[in-house]
Amino acid sequence: SHHLNLWEEFLRDRIDTATAVLEIGSFEGRSALFFLQFLPKSRITCVDSFQGSEEHVERGSEYESDMAEVERRFDQNLMPFADRVEKRKGCSVVVLPALAAEQRLYDVIYVDGDHSAVSTYTDARLGWDLLDKDGLM
Ligand SMILES: C[S@@+](CC[C@H](N)C(=O)[O-])C[C@H]1O[C@@H](n2cnc3c(N)ncnc32)[C@H](O)[C@@H]1O
After folding, report:
1. 22 CB under 6 A from ligand 1?
2. Is residue 77 part of a domain?
3. Nearest CA to ligand 1 atom 16
4. Alpha carbon of 33 to those of 76, 87, 102, 131: distances in Å?
5. For residue 59, what are the domain limits?
């Protein structure tokens, strides 16, 4: 939520366009809801393993054991936007190449999966092939 001002600044000129958004890491869907509400003509592909990450485990496994519940809340939160949401459940290193094989392209890509350096770099690199001309990652 503390990035909202910045996001609005960068995304404002896309409000009236049909924007294809790819989100890597969705959790309960808070950021996906932001894109869908701020960009009313957008569609979003949400990639999440719904297995959590190291950071969730480090917090004391509260989230780790609850990921089925997290996924249920994601489904429930995104239900009002179901016609604009594509959920791709799986690990990003599997799903992103699959999207590339389908020749999918996105205008906006948000990398927020596993925050370790190697995973963030890998997601950004795989995402780069899915970013359209004039896209924003
Ligand atoms: C920080 S949370 C996402 C938060 C969300 N973007 C938001 O702002 O509301 C990270 C999510 O990435 C998912 N994740 C972690 N590693 C992943 C991977 N390798 N592939 C797909 N999803 C992953 C986790 O299951 C978790 O739900």
Report:
1. no
2. yes
3. 114
4. 12, 13, 25, 21
5. 51-82
